[in-house]
Write a structure and sequence with these properties.
With about 550 residues, the protein is α+β, with helices and mostly antiparallel strands. The chain has 14 helices and 18 strands.
Length: about 550
Amino acid sequence: MAGDYYSLYATFAGTVHGPREVSTEQARRDRAASLEPLQAEQAKLAQEREAFEKELLARAAEAEAEAAKSWTRPKASRYETAETFPPEQVKFVRLLVEGTDSSDRNRTAYQIDEFEIWTAEETPRNVALASAGGKATGASREAKDFKGAYGAFLTNDGRYEQRWQAGGPELVIELAEPVTVNRVVFSSDRPRALSEEHGLTTFVGDYRIEVSSDGQTWKQVATSADRLPICEQRKQSRLLALVTTPEVIARREDLQRRSSEIAKQIAGIPPLPVWWVGTHRDAPGPFKTFVGGNPMKPGAEVQVAGLQILSDLPSAYHLDNQAGEGARRVALAEWLTAPDQPLTPRVLANRIWHYHFGTGIVDTPSDFGYMGSRPTHPELLDWLARQLIENGWQLKPLHRTIMTSQTYRQSGRWRADAAQSDADARLLWRFPPHRLTGEEIRDTILSITGKLDLTMGGPGYRLYEYQQDNVATYVPLDRVGPETYRRGIYHHSARAARVDILTDFDCPDPAFADPRRASTITPLQALTLMNHTFAFEM
């Protein structure tokens, strides 16, 4: 079985995920002609900016020796950074972050486990603590699935296990009352619990400490300017600041303005149409199995081929591993549709029958093997398969044949005598009644209330909220707006998303391919129609 799987996998080895441009060669040439002069100007500006930045870096390097004389204190430490200053009576203390120990230019990707403010007393007290009345505020990283999980309150809770994950360059501590302080201490890993092997937290690099009695007028009491730079990026930023004159600022702004104008013109050229129709690349062999399904553990070599169980057919294909991607897919297509192929037409005809009657002639539509069910009408299935082939694999004639048949047009009326021997009507002594699917129930409710939007095409809608923090989460929406009052065919069905009003009525799990839907009767279905928010609003 594994060999069959990887032989078929080899057939599609050159098919990759991703969009694909679909346009004529003339359209490509026209767009390239429009882009070429703009891209040339963009490249010229990039070279000009690079030369300008190199010149600044050279000037900055010349200033390093003199600047380094003022770096007399150790660099800021994630394990504990302390600043002592003359006593000040304050009600507010704030930390202004000017840079971090990473390359983050927005100064927001840093963490602090505790920020302490100590009184100028014989026995100092940490008055920043929430238990002492301190209140911490500052923008935080937002986790949609856990509101407030990384808030500034973590900087003054007296614990080091959790950290404030900053969303901005400022942290403000408001004290319970004005008090005289002379020292602050902050860190991101006070217990030294993290190692470089498992990843260190990003910490403050350059900063200022300011105090205020009213939260409006601020006084600087400490700065990291006389500390050693925490990393190479911070050293470079400090040196560049020393050589950044008004002329440099004006030149930089001019380059930025010109670059933005070019980028805007490039963005104004319409892109070529992009379709998600399969992207193919050349992928020569050899092809191998994956041990345990792990692509990093190649196993035995396999040949590009069809299923071994059908290898005796005249149409069976076995290709050299150096055959091109197109040749491999053509061989598979010809094998699937060959006149001597017994499986494809029967499976397809059975699926079409299944869609019309709710159950196929073989009621395991994805399994025609020994583990699957036997057909109820094998000769009928063979005849439908032949009709499909004789009509050139066109589906409409087969649909017409089924839908104009007496079997399809018969009544669904119950007959006690027939039910005694065939309660499920598998032999089709009546037309099997069809229940509405979950999507159809929702569409019907919208239609009955006159709210169904029948607009065709356009973007779809979601009955869930997509949240992404460390992992992607799909949260069903309890309340939805008119933008969702469209047919179920326009709903974005994400693989990990379960929507209660659909799931309650046997909508399959989107994470798995399912050839047929279950049909259940549960109290939850009645309760959903009575109590669900959507039902109430309708």
